């Protein structure tokens, strides 16, 4: 497969597309595109594309980092689950160090809470099987790429008759957040670079409303440097021709309809629900809640979770970074107080976080 990956990192081809992009933008007004997803943000930094782009093309990062957009309240809930007796909390590694109102899962673990890092929801089901005398709560964060795998784990636990497994569903779906960003009116934007992996599941049609209602060009792009350059070229092309539609650059992975089997699985277990996003606040139908038939796997119904008083560090500007209205370098804490070793907010903790990417690639050589 490396052969195929290499094809999408070909330097000569990259220079050719860059030259075309520069020609296309020459003498044109500046344009601002948002890469919605953290995977794009990291890839853009890692490949060193940013300084090579025409000076009139500005890239801003969006809210597509699952750890970063998890509301403080949900982080606090995850920590609350970890404080319950005979309970194991299973979660993805990135979430461990995100500061909640008072503490983090990692700090709670150091104090004796049973918090385990897992790579998938299936690992958490296995953990439940191995520990029948404990409750295992999986903290379900992530977008449409992750949610079907969690749905699959839930149906598997059901088939196997596992009684001590539940999920705290803090999953999010992307298109409603894109609409919320645009309707807020505080973001000037010329187009969205949409994520290849999420769109493999939801299909390019998922952005049709965003494109038509807000007259916003959308291009679904892969994550290799050539994909990104090609995607940007397609965005500029659309913008300059005055059009607003959904184009797919990542044709080797994305169809218009998406992965209908994964969509069915997700819809079998979850239903759309309102959700609170860090930085963006509550957004209608942007989350996934358990359908009634699966309520026994819903950690919030299995446990009596109290209302928790949330306290956010007012100095952390993650919310503004996620809305694309502030660059990490403009946050007064960036690098001075907030570092990957001592993160003040999730955007610095997560491997897909914008602040973390700026720190690692813009400052660490
Ligand atoms: Fe928050 Fe740190 Fe990013 Fe500032 S640099 S917005 S404190 S995560």
Automatic annotation (TrEMBL):
Keywords for the protein's UniProt record, in alphabetical order: Iron, Metal-binding
Superkingdom of the organism of origin: Bacteria
GO biological process: protein maturation
Keyword Metal-binding listed: yes
Alphabetized GO MF terms: 4 iron, 4 sulfur cluster binding; carbon monoxide binding; iron ion binding
Keyword set includes Iron: yes
Family statement drawn from the similarity comment of this UniProt entry: Belongs to the HypD family.
Protein name: Hydrogenase expression/formation protein HypD
């Amino acid at each position: 497969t490396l052969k195929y990956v290499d094809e999408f990192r070909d330097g000569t081809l990259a220079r050719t597309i860059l030259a075309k992009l520069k020609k296309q933008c020459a003498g044109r007004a500046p344009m601002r595109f948002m890469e919605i997803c953290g995977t794009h943000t990291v890839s853009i930094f890692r490949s060193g594309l940013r300084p090579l782009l025409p000076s009139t093309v500005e890239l801003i990062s969006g809210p597509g980092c699952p750890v970063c957009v998890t509301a403080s309240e949900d982080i606090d809930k995850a920590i609350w689950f970890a404080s319950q007796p005979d309970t194991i909390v299973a979660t993805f590694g990135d979430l461990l160090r995100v500061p909640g109102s008072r503490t983090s899962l990692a700090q709670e673990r150091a104090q004796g809470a049973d918090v385990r890092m897992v790579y998938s929801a299936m690992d958490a089901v296995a953990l439940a099987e191995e520990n029948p005398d404990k409750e295992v709560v999986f903290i379900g964060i992530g977008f449409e790429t992750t949610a079907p795998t969690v749905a699959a784990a839930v149906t598997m636990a059901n088939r196997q008759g596992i009684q001590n497994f539940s999920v705290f569903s803090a999953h999010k779906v992307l298109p409603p957040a894109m609409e919320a960003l645009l309707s807020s009116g505080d973001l000037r934007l010329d187009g969205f670079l949409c994520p290849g992996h999420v769109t493999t599941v939801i299909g390019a049609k998922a952005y049709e409303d965003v494109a038509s209602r807000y007259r916003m060009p959308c291009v679904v792009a892969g994550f290799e440097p050539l994909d990104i350059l090609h995607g940007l070229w397609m965005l500029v092309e659309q913008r300059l021709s005055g059009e607003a539609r959904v184009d797919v650059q990542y044709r080797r992975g994305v169809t218009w309809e998406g992965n209908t089997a994964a969509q069915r699985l997700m819809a079998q277990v979850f239903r759309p629900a309102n959700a609170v996003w860090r930085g963006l606040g509550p957004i209608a139908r942007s989350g996934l809640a358990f359908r009634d038939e699966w309520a026994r796997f819903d950690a919030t119904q299995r446990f009596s979770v109290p209302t928790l008083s949330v306290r956010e560090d007012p100095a952390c500007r993650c919310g503004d970074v996620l809305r694309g209205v502030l660059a990490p370098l403009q946050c007064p804490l960036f690098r001075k107080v907030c570092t990957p070793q001592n993160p003040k907010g999730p955007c610095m903790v997560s491997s897909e976080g914008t602040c973390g990417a700026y720190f690692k690639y813009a400052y660490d050589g």
